[in-house]
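Per-residue structure
===
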Amino acid sequence: MTFDLAHIWASMGFFGKLIAFALILMAVACVGVVVERMLALKRNARDSRLFAQQASPTLDAWKVEDLIDVADRYKHSMLARMLGAMFKRYLRGYDDLDGGLTPSQLARGESDRQKEVIATDLRRGMNVLASVGSVAPFVGLLGTVVGIIGAFQGIATTGSGGIAAVSAGIAESLVETALGLTVAIPAVLLFNYLSVRVANVELALARSASELLDEMETREGARHEKSSARRAA
C-alpha cells in the first residue's frame, strides 16, 4: 500500500477523523501560542533595551519622576513595567512616612508583586503547550485503538481473516499514533525552549530589581544622615 494521505483520510471512520481533527486543532493552537510568545518576548527585549539606554543617565542623576515618565513610554517592556511600579511606590512612600515602613521597603514589596504578575504574563498560553505535549500521544493512541477495532469488526462482518484483511486498516489506524507524536514532540521541545527564555527574563528582572533596591536603600540612608546632621546643627 502506498503512503497516500488522501486515501488514508478517506478510509478512516467517523471517530478516526474526529480524533485526527482534534490533533490538528492541537497543532494549530500550539503554533498560535509559540508565535504569540515569540513576538511578545521579542518586543520585550527590544523595548527593555531601549528603556535601559534612556533610563541609565536619568537613573545616575536619580531623577525619579523622569524615570517614571520614561518607563511609561515602553508598554511592552517587563523591565520598564516593574521598575516604573517600584519608583511610583517609592515616591508614595515619602508621602506616608508614618506608616511604619520605609519607602525602600514599600518598593521591595511592590517588586515582589510585580514579579508575580510578570511571571504569569510571560507564561501566558504555555499551559497549552504543556497539555498538548502530554495528551497528544494518548489521543493518537486512542485513534489507533479505534482504527484497530474497526478493522477487526470488518473481519467479523466479512468472515475473512488473515493479515491481508487487516493490514490496510491497521496501517491507517497507526497513522493516528504517528500524528499524535508529530504534534506532541514539537510541543514539548517548544515548551522547554520557551521556559528557558522566560526563566532568563525573570532572572534579569530579579537582578535589576535587587540592584535598584540597593540603590534606593543607599540613597535613603544618605538622606536620613543629612536630615539628622541638619537637626543636630
In short: Residues 5-232 form one domain. The chain has seven helices and no strands. The radius of gyration is 29 Å. The chain has one domain: 5-232.
